Amino acid sequence: MTINFLIAPDFPPEYYAGWHFLNTRLQRLIDAPVHLSMASNAEEEQQEIDKDNVDIIYANPFNASKLIRELGYLPVVKPVNCFDEMIIASSADSEIKSLADIKPGMSILCTENYDVKLIALRLLEAVDIDEKDLTWIKSESFAAVARGLIQKQGNIGLFMSSAYHKLTAITRSRLNLLIESKINDLFHLILLHPRNAEMLENLQNAFSTMRDTPAGEMLLEDLGLNDGFEVLKKEDVELLIDLIETLRD
Predict the structure, then answer these.
(1) pLDDT above 90 (res 97)
(2) Model confidence over 143-168: pLDDT tens digits?
(3) Which of 113, 115, 124, 246 yields a CA-CA distance of 20 to 30 A from 63?
(4) CB burial class (10 A; 0-12, 13-18, 19+) of residue 27?
(5) CA–CA dist 179, 100 (Å, integer)
(6) Coil, strand or helix: which one is 124?
(7) What is the pTM of this model?
């Protein structure tokens, strides 16, 4: 039986090949066929989940919380020392130099990443800006958000920190970083569908030992997961879910 492994659509495009290399190694470690798919957007990701086509998923923390609570997905591993943070930025030649310069009626460029938007809204509370105060403009990728800011298509833009810091130095020089979150408790998770519960320990061993060889270490570094994966503790999952509920309230 082929196992379906879905990757969340919120990673830089240059990681596409790296995920395929990781999947090849995963198949060898668990001695089972794994079909890798990478959702192009949040809608496609949700469709695959709704169709019950997903056995393993690399999910952002907000989706992971829902999958665990509502669908019974089992936590497998999390990346070590790799947290989900976000950045609010403006064009370098914009008059917006700090959060205090953001005013009602301004436009904001963003992707479909709900987690990035939610964290941004919490940061904007500091300057009394609410979701309804801004005009939200959808962008297909974080690179598109950057282009939109440079081309004056929006006043501010939202980025995952990892994606922002992967932009070229020239692109970043044309942007002004207003604020970067420092939550340090949000992270992506590998989850397993409950129908595959018998695979849990095998998967945990495979992911957590992937860094133990030079080849595994190299492929993880290519994905920006330099310290590999570690098995999730129950308290880590509970803390994550509690934090997400707090951000949503």
Answers:
(1) yes
(2) 999 999 999 999 999 999 988 998 99
(3) 124
(4) middle
(5) 11
(6) helix
(7) 0.86
C-alpha to C-alpha distances, 14 to 11, 56, 99, 104, 198, nearest whole angstrom: 8, 22, 31, 36, 33
Which among 199, 201, 187 is positioned nearest to 8, based on CA atoms? 187
pLDDT, tens only, 45-68: 999 999 999 999 999 998 999 999
Q: Are 139 and 9 in contact (CB under 8 A)?
A: no
Mean of pLDDT values over 181-185? 88
* Cβ-based burial of 204 (10 A; exposed 0-12, middle 13-18, buried ≥19): buried
The C-alpha atoms of residue 19 and residue 182 are separated, in whole angstroms, by 27
How many Å apart are CA 243 and CA 166, to the nearest integer? 27
The mean pLDDT of 170-183, rounded to a whole number, is 95
CA distance 22 to 81: 19
